[in-house]
Amino acid sequence: MKVLVVGGGGREHAIIRKLKESKKIKEIYALPGNGGMYKDATPVAIGAKDIDGIVKFAVDNQIDYAVVAPDDPLVLGCVNALNEVGIPCFGPTKEAAIIEGSKVFSKNLMKKYGIPTATYEVFSDAEKALEYVKTGPIPTVIKADGLALGKGVIIAFTREEAIEAVSSIMTDKKFGSSGDNIVIEEFLEGPEVSVLAFTDGKVVKPMVSSMDHKRALDGDKGLNTGGMGTIAPNPYYTSTVADECMAKIFLPTIEAMKSEGREFKGCLYFGLMLTKDGPKVIEYNCRFGDPETQVVLPLLESDLFEIMKATTNGTLADCEVKFSDKYACCVIMASKGYPEKYQNGFEMVIPEKIEKDVYVAGAKYEDGKIYSAGGRVLGVTDVSTSLKSAIDGAYKKVEMIKFDNAFYRHDIGARALMATEEK
Ligand code: AMP
Ligand code: GLY
Q1: Collapsed DSSP state (helix, strand, coil) of residue 230
Q2: Torsion angle of alpha carbons 368, 32, 310, 295, nearest 10°?
Q3: Is 240 within 8 Å of 338 (Cβ atoms)?
């Protein structure tokens, strides 16, 4: 079988590696992929948002199955377009991807179906929003409605910050038309958990839970990033919490989407906060998380391709989704300066014996060498029998990788380890 994967980061590299384990797959193309993936897939210079280009490539090359990984093409209807030419896909249609594409949609969905989340107000008028934050509760959380490269959420701890956030999103259009509407919501507190779940629109099979580290610097300092590292499983996500999430959040969400005529198939990502009043949804993503995927998929023991096809065909109930009981840690190596300005183009040296544990997010290939090309450059994963040894293992591998201008956090998993030791 010939498979196409849309996307080009570390998440896509982790998906490709796992798909390669399936005997049924003969060839994998990555659109656009990146130069660091060349041993696992054929990178093709077609951008993830170039829907017409992706469809043309798929038809011309007789692709049997497509995996659409990033949010943008999903929200733009890449799955719809591929389905129209008869190519089955992993991922939701654009009608279902709106669960990530519009925060106003997802908040209204949760309200309508009684799914626990922060209380909120929606504004389309900057004046009214400003009036609200001048007297409303503080701290407060201000979110642009649409996609904003993971940066559309501002937590305001003072009234001045809240006013500034509303103005920058609604008046100055910091995130373009994504900020035409905003959600202002209650500030919640508690440990955060990411749960990715396979679904065929009828049943939900959650993957092992994980914990992201979104801030750029040690001690959760610095700017928000796409994610600087992950561990799995998340020690706060006990089996009691998991049962509560299944009953109050996961199944109700799948059923709500179906009732709305927006059946969701693919991977639904639940960003949860475990508050003193129980688990609440912080956000939904219509796709695998990055870098959550780089710890979750290495723990998957079942055949990923079979699971993906089962989500497409509506047969997930009969498909085995089994995870190992080990632990995983992924440390992201980024370019110094990320998530703001950074320099790259530096040669990367990755020892062969750890290549299989390295998921390349941004690299260029030239004459047998690879060069850093991007903010997040690569992720290094270790799987082990304890969280502590997985963390130590990941950092040992990080030390073995060389490229100029590299930077990474030194405390990935530290909070999780403390939580494990407290238990
Ligand atoms: P998001 O881009 O929606 O994942 O939000 C980014 C981060 O902002 C989350 O991972 C949380 O840490 C934080 N956040 C979002 N919503 C809230 C909220 N209602 N209360 C507290 N923190 C929040
Ligand atoms: N790591 C968070 C995300 O993929 O959105």
Answers
A1: strand
A2: 60
A3: no
* pLDDT category of residue 421 using cuts at 50, 70 and 90: confident
| Cβ count near 247 (within 10 Å) | 10
Cα of 142 vs centre of ligand 1, distance in Å, is 9
Total residues found in the chain within this entry: 423
Ligand 2 neighbours, Cβ below 6 Å, are 150, 212, 226-227, 285, 289-290, 292
Tell me the two tokens of residue 214: 């979104």
Radius of gyration for the chain, computed over Cα atoms and rounded to the nearest angstrom: 21
Q: Which of 164, 258, 150 is nearest to 194 (CA)?
A: 150
Distance between CA atoms of residues 30 and 8, nearest Å: 7
Provide the β-strand partners of residue 315.
Answer: none
Pocket of ligand 1 (CB under 6 A): 118, 141, 150, 153, 155, 185-188, 192, 214, 271, 282-283
CB 387 within 8 A of CB 417: yes
Model confidence pLDDT, tens digit, residues 65-108? 999 999 999 999 999 999 999 999 999 999 999 999 999 999 99
Question: In the numeric block, which tokens belong to residue 55?
Answer: 């469809």
Question: How large is the angle between the packed helices 414-422 and 387-400, nearest 10 degrees?
Answer: 160
CA-to-CA separations, 168 to 112, 172, 182, 397, in angstroms, rounded: 30, 5, 11, 41
Q: Name the DSSP class of 300.
A: B
Torsion angle in degrees (nearest 10) through CA of 125, 127, 133, 135: -130
Q: How far apart are CA 224 and CA 148, in angstroms?
A: 12
74-84: b or e for each residue (b if 16 or more CB lie within 10 Å)? bbbbbbbbbee
pLDDT of residue 151: 72
The ligand with the least distance to the CA atom of 183 is 1
C-alpha 199/C-alpha 201 separation (Å) is: 5
Pocket test for ligand 1, best of 119, 210, 224, 283 (most atoms within 8 A of CB): 283
Contacts of 313-320 spanning 24+ positions with Cβ under 8 A: 313/88, 313/200, 314/200, 314/201, 314/202, 314/265, 315/200, 316/198, 316/199, 316/200, 316/202, 316/203, 316/205, 317/200, 317/202, 317/203, 319/205
Ligand 1 center–CA 109 separation, angstroms: 18
Question: Running DSSP on this structure, what letter comes out for residue 271?
Answer: E
Q: What does DSSP assign to residue 104?
A: H
The pTM assigned to this predicted structure is 0.96
